[in-house]
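Ligand-bound model needed. nicotinamide-adenine-dinucleotide.
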Amino acid sequence: MSSEYKEPGPVLDKENPFESMMRRFDVAAEILQLEPGVYQYLKTPVKQVTVSIPIQMDNGQVEIFEGHRVIHNDILGPSKGGIRYAPDVDINEVKALAAWMTWKCSLLSVPFGGAKGGVKCDPTKLTQVELEKITRRYTANMMDVFGDDKDIPAPDMNTNEQTMAWIMDTYSMHMRRTIGGVVTGKPLLIGGSLGRREATGRGVMIVTLGAMEKIGLKPKDTAIVVQGFGNVGSVSAQLLREQGCKIIGISDVTGGYYNKRGVDVDKAIEYVKQNKTLTGFTGAEKVTQSEFLELDCDVLVPAAKEDQITPKNANKITAKIIAEGANGPTTANADPILNERGIIVIPDILANAGGVTVSYFEWVQNRVGYYWSIDRVNRRLERMMKAAFDGVYATSKKHTVSLRIGAYINSIDRVAKTLKIRGIYA
Ligand code: NAD
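Prediction:
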């Protein structure tokens, strides 16, 4: 089943995600002069759990799926990270994504460690009933791992509010009481937070405006291209347009859509609601996926998937700023090319950290049992994103490094210092 699945769209230069993360980690570790023991500690995941998930399919046959949960580090608090369902889920990818979560939480001063989970399955070939069974059995097998003060999942690729509701319900059934805080990204009705859905795109908007200010780009003079028109891409496009920027290109898995006078983002969102994809969207000219990334613009927001900006196209990108809405959209080999060309890259662990920040707000609200207004959520998100951006900017200037390395320095430093104070239990 899974071997037949092929996601459309180009993966231009696939890297081993864990190695790719470690290459950036190593540069920061050297600048921080991490002791070898601390280096090893921060590199090694604290826990990796793989479970088998036997499911009786709708046709009566039993199929076995494989599920992982990797806790990279929990020194800052309970570990936090999404769960993805995809045919190509593998432990290396899950390990890299778990480490990214550690750095992301640390960077935003969110008191969580980093984790990630995944189930190797092809959701496009599963019914709702089968998906629910997989989710519940995965959760049952992870009862010793999950917990509202231990390890807290969230949605990721191909999982959503409904998946979180099933996890919360299964976990609560086993614990004999409702424990909302065991997952975030839940539906509002069962303890989700206002503003969570838009949080990642809102964070992208905040740090993009921050970077634009640094180079004197005014919103009214800024043309933006956004790759990916799902949760992150569509909200980033909408909010940046509300700030006065012109969105000249949007794309999804079906291709790129370009209009130099500006795409009507609200119309496109409505179109996707009705039609699922941008295919047939009028008011823009169709371009190929590779032409799309090279469109003439001031800001590029890759908000689709990993490995999109590679040595093959890094020289052709015209944007002055790249705001990484997606996780890992730029390969480690493309970094030096972009740096040399003076392109400011707002790294994923900063640019898309709005999601985990509001997930933290959701968890706080669940534990206190008091729910915040949307204004309070957005104000606090803005404060935390701006503080993280300013901190990264200052570090990058201090060490004359890219924002990416600045972000790694700040986040690794915080985890390493916390480890030093807590000490090693033996
Ligand atoms: P989504 O599934 O809602 O949307 C993904 C979009 O990308 C879709 O429009 C899809 O058609 C498009 N796409 C897929 N392959 C493509 C390709 N090759 N070329 C162009 N477009 C393509 O996903 P999302 O939640 O918006 O997440 C997007 C990225 O952001 C992922 O890397 C995810 O890990 C990251 N991220 C998401 C969140 C969040 O809160 N949703 C938080 C942090 C990071």
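The pocket of nicotinamide-adenine-dinucleotide is lined by residues 9-10, 156, 200, 227-233, 251-253, 289, 303-305, 325-327, 352, 355 (CB under 6 Å).
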